[in-house]
Design brief:
It contains 10 helices and 10 strands. By secondary structure, it is an alpha/beta fold. The chain has one domain: Aldolase class I (TIM Barrel, Alpha-Beta Barrel). The strands form 2 sheets. An 8-stranded parallel barrel has the order 1-2-3-4-5-8-9-10, surrounded by 7 helices. A two-stranded antiparallel sheet has the order 6-7.
């Protein structure tokens, strides 16, 4: 090989444990498989109008501490059972974080949070955590950022997001077409709906793309298309897009594209203008729209942790404060309970009158 023209900037190419090996180490139990499938079916039914509930994806902006994540999951399971008549609650379990420039890229990429990037360790930790959450009976939601890691963990998600930065990626659209879970595509960072609409159309059709199979072999993946993809409104550079005017505009564009008016509102990101407390204002507005007769809002997303706000990652990791996000700011647990109970109460009667 002539290294004058190839691999000039590559330090190493380290073999990685195969997906089937990881799954053999941490296999699906009957209980965990049932949780995942029931969660997927509930969201499909909500999108299809067969289930009148809202689905709510709630949890930390990112997972950096698996013990903290399990403590949160146990509390959320109790709340999910309490509100199950009106809300289908799914835990936000995000392992990969897209960065605008540089920064910590999530548990899978850097589980030790020190730049060592022990990806094999991160994959094992992530799968083990998802299994434990599923065995509680709580469905999980994640974001598909990397094109290979879904082979290791995607079977444990009941719902998946494609983020604003990757919705325009043709490869991510094709990958989503093969997912068993429903998939939400976020509008572009500039607030544009067309990017996500094109993604939904692409993911709904059969596709062919190059990835790896469970044995780690490079393969051509052929899909039949995912019929349960939908829009996620997260605001944009021009500001929030969750109010009735923006929802109506989105409905119109979806209808023009021949797509069902299935919309989820991300209460964080640009919709809260990066102020975690403004998520409460977004939820109040959404609840009122549903009371006023809105039929298209099928779900919401909330960033929540035990304690409010966020913290930088210290050099001495023992200084990390338990229950505080290391990425975006979150609302605290007490507020989470309050706002979700309030949401369930406000929309209860209106949800029952929704038209299929």
């Amino acid at each position: 090989m002539d290294n004058r023209i190839e691999n000039l900037h590559v330090i190493s190419e380290d073999p990685l444990i195969r997906p089937d090996q990881v799954k053999a180490m941490y296999p699906l139990s009957t209980e965990s498989a049932e949780t995942v499938m029931q969660g997927q079916q509930a969201i499909r039914d909500i999108l299809d109008g067969k289930d009148k509930r809202l689905f709510v994806v709630v949890g930390p902006c990112s997972i950096h501490d698996v013990d903290l994540a399990m403590d949160y999951a146990k509390r959320l399971k109790v709340l999910a059972d309490e509100l199950k008549d009106n809300l289908c609650i799914v835990m936000r379990v995000y392992f990969e974080k897209p960065r605008t420039s540089i920064g910590w890229q999530g548990l899978i990429n850097d589980p030790d949070m020190d730049g060592s990037c022990d990806i094999a360790k991160g994959l094992l930790m992530s799968r083990k955590l998802l299994l434990k959450i599923a065995e509680l009976g709580l469905p999980a939601a994640g974001e598909a950022l990397d094109l290979i890691t879904p082979q290791y963990v995607q079977d444990l998600f009941s719902w998946t997001a494609i983020g604003a930065r990757t919705t325009e990626s043709q490869t991510h659209r094709k990958m989503a077409s093969g997912f068993s879970a429903p998939v939400g595509f976020k509008n572009g960072t500039n607030g544009d709906y067309d990017v996500a609409i094109n993604a939904i159309l692409c993911a709904g059709h059969k596709n062919d793309f190059v990835s790896i199979d469970p044995q780690g072999q490079v393969a051509v993946i052929r899909t039949r298309g995912n019929p349960h993809t939908h829009m996620v409104l997260r605001g944009g550079s021009d500001g929030p897009n969750y109010d009735a005017k923006h929802i109506a505009a989105c409905e119109k564009q979806l209808d023009h594209a021949g797509l069902p008016a299935n919309i989820m509102v991300d209460c964080s990101h640009a919709n809260s203008q990066k102020d975690h407390q403004k998520q409460l204002l977004v939820l109040d507005d959404i609840a009122q729209q549903i009371v006023d007769g809105n039929q298209s809002i099928k779900g919401v997303m909330v960033e929540s942790n035990f304690k409010a706000g966020n913290q930088p990652i210290p050099e001495d990791l023992s200084q990390l404060e338990y229950g505080v996000s290391v990425t975006d700011k979150c609302i605290d647990w007490e507020t989470t309970e309050q706002v979700l109970r309030s949401l369930a109460t406000k929309v209860s009667d209106s949800l029952q009158t929704r038209i299929k």
